[in-house]
Amino acid sequence: MTRRELIALAPALLLPSCSSGPAPQAAAVKPAVPLTGLHALYQMYTSARAWAQDLQILRYASINIREVPHQDGKAAAWQVVFVSQALAKSRTYTLSIYEASATLHEGIFPEAPQNWAGDGKPFLLETAKVDTDKAWETALQHGGDYNTKNPKIPISWTLGMDKGADPVWRVIWGESAGESGFSVLVDASTGDFIRIVN
User: Fold this and answer.
1) Does residue 108 contact residue 94 with C-beta atoms inside 8 Å?
2) Which of 150, 197, 155 is closest to 176 using CA atoms?
3) Do 79 and 60 meet the contact criterion of CB atoms below 8 Å apart?
């Protein structure tokens, strides 16, 4: 390369080093936002339709994650057991908004199908019309005093059949119904208060 060609290229070679603008910053990480029960359930249902077309819900429950701040009527993770009468199988799906552990990953994860003998009381998704944010409002009308006296108790949720024809939200003060001293049952079809369980 001649000296004349080098002189001609010099300005172009210097351009990148002359840039004085600020370096691009990494995008800020958005905090994980908990989901209402039906919002999470619809996502898992849509995913599970690839496995079976006649899905029914056998059990459904929230999972609390310590690293995700609590929000009324919402949870960081949810787990559902779907059943298919045509396949005589059940299958568990989990949805989490946070990478919590080696067994609880962010996103939707199905487990392997299991044999199902038809036990339990499965119900159709469309019978659950009231979401957990509305069920929480109803639960507070009847459990507000308990909630005020126990502000640090985590809230958990289950959805299943009780004694009636419609599925029921159980709003639980505690990590599970078994270790809770107080919970409120709310009709998941109408949003009506059913009863307090101590």
Assistant:
1) yes
2) 155
3) yes
Question: Can you give the pTM of this predicted structure?
Answer: 0.83
Q: Which residues pair with 155 in a beta bridge?
A: 173
CA-wise closest residue to 45 among 90, 93, 78, 84:
93
List the one residue out of 24, 31, 59, 57 whose CA is nearest residue 157: 59
Per-residue pLDDT tens over the stretch 114-143: 999 999 999 999 999 999 999 999 999 999
The string of pLDDT tens digits covering residues 4-46 is 454 444 444 444 444 455 555 555 667 778 999 999 999 999 9
Exposed/middle/buried for 2, CB within 10 Å: 0-12, 13-18, 19+? exposed
Cα-atom radius of gyration of the chain, to the nearest Å? 25
